[in-house]
Design a protein that fits this description.
Shape: globular
Distance between the termini: 23 Å
Strand content: over 45%
Mean pLDDT: 92
Largest sheet: 8 strands, antiparallel
Number of helices: 3
Radius of gyration: 17 Å
Helix content: 10-25%
Number of strands: 8
Length: 156
């Protein structure tokens, strides 16, 4: 990381940033160019390891790419705010972000409901009674994070 002064070094602080984010961008290998997907997600922490859960339609390009190469990168950001400094004739952006890498795999059918519950909890802090009839028509996949870094720039 070039700007060490902006690095978030504490794991618990990185987790707090992740909890604030609403979208995780997953980058899959598609040969010449990466294939990037903006996804809703849920997070699970077990023994200091992060697992992200995602969901989608039962078929599509992302699954073909995961089958060929399940190594992926991710990015998420939040707390963005444009800061204009009139006296300097300058502007900058405040932000918090997390990037990292890991492996992606399809969640087996018998674990999908639990994974979707984790995903829903990220957006609804209380239990949200979603329609369980969608489970058979939904594919769930997860990323086991192998490494990640956090970064923050706040002017105030």
């Amino acid at each position: 990381m070039r700007r060490r002064d902006r690095e978030i070094t504490e794991f618990d602080e990185i987790v707090k940033v992740i909890e604030k984010c609403e979208v995780c961008r997953l980058a899959l290998n598609d040969g010449e160019y990466p294939y990037i997907l903006p996804l809703n997600f849920g997070m699970e922490l077990i023994d200091g390891k992060i697992t992200f859960y995602f969901h989608g339609a039962p078929e599509g390009k992302k699954y073909e790419l995961i089958q060929r190469n399940n190594k992926a990168s991710f990015e998420m950001d939040c707390s963005t705010r444009l800061v204009t400094i009139l006296e300097d004739g300058n502007c900058t952006m405040e932000y918090e972000s997390v990037i990292g890498q890991g492996t992606v795999e399809i969640v087996p059918d018998d674990q999908k409901e639990r994974a979707l519950d984790i995903l829903m909890k990220h957006y609804h802090k209380e239990d949200f009674p979603y329609n369980k009839a969608v489970i058979p028509r939904t594919k769930v996949f997860k990323m086991t994070v192998e490494r990640c870094t956090g970064k923050r720039r706040m002017k105030h």
